[in-house]
């Protein structure tokens, strides 16, 4: 659960340096994992390693998050993140391989926009506790988004306490202290504190309005996965999203909160392996 996590490769995107890595055998069926906010690829560590025996797993930190570049004036809007994902597909040579994509939280919007607007092709798509439908936003996110200039001036200690409490609330049983600190730490440098409020300010509550009406256009096989105890995006959203996507399958993870990767990693890995492995070809 608290294993080391190192993204050892860099791609210079149009939004800044992106740190990324891959697990598994070259040429195995590709699987791309997307994180959301205020997280990083670190939350995928157990799932990525579990799936590496069957897939070539790609993980990355979005610009402005985790180990990727954080810079004043940086465009970290989700529209831009979708462009960066499109750049990465070309960089990774995935344009013709049609990977399975598993996307969490904001990553759901990024994956959908890259597919519906930029034309990225997926073999399968898993949307996990995804920010897709209009009306999203935990009470904390809404409060921070209403006054980013005020919260951005918090003393470092108060900022750390706020971010720690906020991130911790994403887990239903509670995060291991080492894992919690690892997720919090990137937001607690001078650059990280500014980046934390920057990404909230640039991604307002109306950001999903442009895609919700297009969910019926999806033809890629889709899995909607949700923590049954998600307090940020309650489970009713899962049912609504699954009903909006033609043919979508719904899978609830009992006892898991918003951070299903942390709360139920083994179960999630098994579900994604079965979903991504259906009709997949590649090394055994």
Automatic annotation (TrEMBL):
It holds the Pfam family Abhydrolase_6. It is an enzyme of class 3 (hydrolase). Residues 31-271 form the AB hydrolase-1 domain. Keywords: Hydrolase. It comes from Streptomyces rimosus subsp. rimosus. Its EC number is 3.8.1.3. The keyword Hydrolase applies. InterPro entries: AB_hydrolase_1, AB_hydrolase_fold, AB_hydrolase_sf, Epox_hydrolase-like. This is Fluoroacetate dehalogenase. One of its GO terms (molecular function) is haloacetate dehalogenase activity.
């Amino acid at each position: 659960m608290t294993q080391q996590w190192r993204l050892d490769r860099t791609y210079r995107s149009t939004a800044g340096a992106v740190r990324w890595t891959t697990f598994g055998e070259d040429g195995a069926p590709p699987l791309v994992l997307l994180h959301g906010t205020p997280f990083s690829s670190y939350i995928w560590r157990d799932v990525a390693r579990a799936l590496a025996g069957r897939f070539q797993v790609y993980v990355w930190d979005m610009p402005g998050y985790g180990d990727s570049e954080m810079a004043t004036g940086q465009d970290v809007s989700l529209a831009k993140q979708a462009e960066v994902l499109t750049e990465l597909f070309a960089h990774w040579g995935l344009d013709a391989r049609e990977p399975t994509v598993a996307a969490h939280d904001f990553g759901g919007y990024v994956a959908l926009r890259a597919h519906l607007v930029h034309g990225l092709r997926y073999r399968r798509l898993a949307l996990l506790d995804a920010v897709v439908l209009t009306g999203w936003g935990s009470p904390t996110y809404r409060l921070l988004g209403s006054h980013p200039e005020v919260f951005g001036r918090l003393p470092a200690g108060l900022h750390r306490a706020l971010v720690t409490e906020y991130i911790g609330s994403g887990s239903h049983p509670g995060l291991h202290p080492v894992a919690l600190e690892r997720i919090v730490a990137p937001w607690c440098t001078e650059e990280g504190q500014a980046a934390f409020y920057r990404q909230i300010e640039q991604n307002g509550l109306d950001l999903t309005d442009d895609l919700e009406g297009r969910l019926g256009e999806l033809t890629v096989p889709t899995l909607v996965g949700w923590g049954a105890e998600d307090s940020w995006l309650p489970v009713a959203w899962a049912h609504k999203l699954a009903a909006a996507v033609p043919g979508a399958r719904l899978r609830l993870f009992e006892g898991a909160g918003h951070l299903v990767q942390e709360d139920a990693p083994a179960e999630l890995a098994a579900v994604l392996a079965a979903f991504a492995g259906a009709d997949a070809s590649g090394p055994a």
